[in-house]
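Entry 14. Ran structure prediction on the chain below.
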Amino acid sequence: MPSNRLSDRDQEIFTLLLERKPHKNNQVESVFWQKVLTPKEQPNANRIKSRLLAAIGNYISLYQLQEETHFKNLLLADFYTKKGAEKNAQAILNKGIALAKKEEQMSHNNPLYLFWYHELKVERDKERRVLDHKLELMEGYLHDFFALSRIRLLCEKANRNRIINGHQDYERYRDEVERLAQQSSAVHNQVYYWIFKLITEQQESYAERLEQFLSKFHSRLGVVYRKEIYGHLMNFCIRRINAGQHLYADQYLRYIGKLEEQGELLDAGRLDVGTLKNAVLAALLMNKLDWALGFIDRWADHLAHASTIDKIAFLELNRAIIELQNNNLEACFLHITNFQTSAMYRKDVYYKITCDKLLLKLYYEVQDIEPILNKIESTKGFIRKQEKLSVSRQQPHLTFLSLLHRIAKKKVINLQEVKAQLLIPDYLWLNKVIKEDNP
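Output, structure tokens:
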């Protein structure tokens, strides 16, 4: 910990600052400083913050240099060169180049590091007639770095195109990706070519190649590189699940388990909301309900959300969904009641509809039929009035409510005929109660 220019009191506050949990909320930030600073220190709060943040800047810089070996090597080599310590500079450059070439240090940036190392070598060798070979090496490394960065960017554009636009217009990306992959023999480029094909063609064979790559080079890959591949594999599983291939839920949970085991589930100390939702969905499909509750308990404090209130409400709703499927009706009702008191219930249409449907399901479970019949039509009317919800997003909810009306009236339904029109939690619940009603 840096202590230069910091008093004992500064270091005490500095330690609290480093140990606090990550957040994105300005109100939480204000409350933190109000609690930490004494009344006498409050008038000088801005000065204290500036002093400590400057210390944090130095601390992070030193820490990152220890983590980023290549940056440290490059800075040292440049320093030794400027000071005329040729042997030291040469030793650092040779060591850095050897390290960057090792498969054990696989990283997206290795070609760029190699370019920079050779750039320094060229600078040092200006007076010698050995430039051509090194310049060719530099050109090759720079080309590999550009090709990899471009393919990664096109993978992300293709993925967002699928999510946001809902169509599969990949032709404008495909030719360029294939050309870049063919122009470079770098293993990274081949891996991201498989990722692009996985996104655009949705074929299991590309997922298998990526899994084989992870298995073969797992311990040699950088964390960022490894997590990025896992992320694409998990997205593939979710797309297959949403397409009705529910067996991919087990594969998704297997990836979650690996990331937990490796201590790599979080990003900057935070769990993405989508990851938690998808983990709960996969657990519902595999009937791993206790696992789902345990997963929420393990990572609740790390959930990335707009505010603490939203986070608590979001977790209450997910617990309610799990407890209902687990036939733990009292716990489900408690979580629903807690969620209904939240701002999220009042302001977020999607989550309000989800909660209202949960309550209707709960009424059915206890065979309180009259509230169901009274509430279904008003809920349908509310959904139809929501201009922010497209017809395609309204339809699964409306279909479920119509089916619920039929079973509440003791009418027979053919669930398999409409399975594709339902959201997965709604289908699972209907399937469960139909089996219970018809043992």
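The two ends are 66 Å apart (CA to CA). Will compare against last week's run tomorrow.
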